[in-house]
Amino acid sequence: MIRTDLDEVSAIAEQERLRSLVEPTGDLPTDLRLVAGVDVSYAKDADLVAGAVVVLDRSTLEVVDSAIAMRKVDFPYLPGLLAFREIPALLDAFDKLETTPELLVCDGYGLAHPRRFGLACHLGVVTGIAAFGVAKTAFIGTGEAPGLARGDTSDLLDGEEVIGRVLRTQHGVKPVFVSVGHKIDLARATSMTLELTPSYRLPQTTRLADQMSRRALAAGSSL
Q1: Half-sphere exposure for 134 (CA within 13 Å, toward CB)
Q2: 77-98 pLDDT, tens per residue?
Q3: How far are the Cα atoms of 83, 154, 173, 177, 200 from residue 91, in angstroms, in the given order?
Q4: Whole-number Å distance between alpha carbons of 37 and 210
């Protein structure tokens, strides 16, 4: 359950409260199989969103389950508080799944957030599932460009604090920004990102969830 009837001050206070529940490390099972990607697409008028969850088999990256949910947005756009706009639709989609994913990959941020509580942290805490974020751009922080080879990394820093990792997923393409969400450490989040990007810059989980949410909006159906 996530409250969307909060003003900005109250929403920030809720983030601060939930942040204490984040577990920034964790041991994923060695036989982990079900990895889910989540993404949200907005209608042009911005008052309707489609939340998609796509569950893949880790070994084959084939889809084993998926769900979509559409709902009205009832929380304003406020930087750093996007989870309050997006998580309700994602939770609706989770309720429709027939499987329970063991790991969530979010198109966004975890600890690489001004209050160290981005979408991946928030979603991980409310679902209890290990989660991390893979973002296309950095919200906060600075870091040197990694080498050009696939797998090259550099630290994403906020001052002297490491808040994420800049990762090159394909040779010569722009890097992505990986950050811990819940119940996983940064090294494992980085290695899982590489597993999920065999051919493209972004994880296959993210690509498929994005495509699914966009198709749902185009069809104008709750599916």
Answers
A1: 29
A2: 899 999 999 999 999 999 999 9
A3: 11, 33, 33, 24, 27
A4: 9
Q: Do the beta carbons of residue 138 and residue 112 sit within 8 Å?
A: yes
Q: Is the pTM value of this prediction over 0.90?
A: yes
- pLDDT, averaged across the chain: 94
- Alpha carbon 110 to chain centroid, angstroms: 7
Domains of the chain, with CATH numbers? Answer: 8-219 (3.30.2170.10)
What is the amino acid identity at position 171?
Answer: H
